[in-house]
Amino acid sequence: MLRIALPNKGRLAEDTRSLFADAGLDIRSTSPRALTASLGGEFEGIFVRAQDIPELVADGAADAGVTGWDLVRESGRDLTASLDLEFGECRIAVAAKEDSGLTSPDEIREGARVATVFPNITRRYFAERSQTVEIVPISGSVEIAPHLGLAELIVDLVSTGSTLRTNGLREVATVMQSTARLICSATSPVGESAAFRGLATALESVIRARGKRYLMANVPRDSLDAIKKVLPGLNGPTVIDLLNGGRMVAAHAVVPAASVFRIIGALRELGAEGILVTRIERLIP
User: Fold this and answer.
1) In what order do the strands lie in the sheet with 79-84?
2) Euclidean distance between the first and final Cα of the chain, in Å?
3) ∠ CA 98-100-103, rounded to 5°
4) Residue 258 DSSP label
5) Which three-class secondary structure state does DSSP give residue 1?
6) pTM, whole model, 2 decimals?
7) Who contacts 108 (Cβ-Cβ below 8 Å, separation ≥6)?
8) Which residues, in sequence order, are CB contacts of 243 under 8 Å at separation 6+?
9) What element of type H or E holds 72?
10) What is the rounded CA–CA span in Å between residue 38 and residue 261?
11) For residues 159 and 87, is the Cβ–Cβ distance under 8 A?
């Protein structure tokens, strides 16, 4: 049985639970406050703070985990991101006061003080740029630091940028992009186990299916060349003869959800009939 460390609260926890449920790994706990839960016969979930998950996985207390890539990078531990889960999207950015005049990291003076809850990421970022700064670690609201004179700059998580604007700050540079990842130790054999590969495949199949639709239509046989351009699918549309269909055949394809409206219009122009569009739960190419 693999022990999977999962976020215990917040939006990251909600999205993780939703993804696992869609993959057939419902979290079965005895209480909403339970610290562990069954995820099916092969997996056990343990619920901890997202920032603790990299350490737990690196130290072997958990076999794998789900957490933000920013937290993995900050930990500095030898971990592998086996799958981008495509939620929890944010970025870590350098920001300064609106009236600072800074518009680029190249304009940051040597020895500038930088307040952050990500000292390791910040240190690496400026070291890679060959810039010397003074790191001011802060555990609370970083945005207040420039206004209190604690630092000239901050490095913090940014989603929409509204919090920076509200606090009179301006984004100067992006340090890194982050999303939630399925992680395991780079030095552990867990990543090569059949159970872990099965978990990754199940989660990835749900991610691939999101934003896709399965479209079926009866189309004129003599329009197939044009139909193939409208319905490229994964490897071209599947074409099936209809019983007593005569000049019509069935064409099936996986299409982007955002393109369904346009595709239906194009198919109708080509004489398609009986068009059916349905959601996809999982997709394994």
Assistant:
1) 36-38, 43-48, 2-7, 64-68, 180-185, 79-84
2) 27
3) 80
4) G
5) coil
6) 0.86
7) 94, 102, 131, 133, 153, 172
8) none
9) helix 69-75
10) 41
11) no
Give the confidence band of 31 by pLDDT, cuts at 50, 70, 90: low
Q: Which of 32, 40, 44, 31 is nearest to 2 (CA)?
A: 44
Give tens-digit pLDDT for 158-212. 888 888 999 999 999 999 999 999 999 999 999 999 999 999 999 999 999 999 9
User: pLDDT value at position 134?
Assistant: 97
What's the rounded Cα separation, in Å, for the pair 64 and 193?
A: 12
Rounded to an integer, the average pLDDT of 257-281 is 95
Asked if 231 and 260 touch (Cβ cutoff 8 Å), the reply is no
Mean predicted lDDT score pLDDT of the chain: 92
What gap in Å lies between CA 182 and CA 89, rounded to an integer?
14
Which of 61, 60, 52, 57 shows the shortest CA–CA distance to 82?
A: 57
Residues 193, 2 contacting (CB under 8 angstroms): yes
User: Nearest 10 degrees: CA dihedral of 20, 26, 28, 31?
Assistant: 60
Q: How far apart are CA 115 and CA 220, in angstroms?
A: 65
* 137, amino acid identity: P
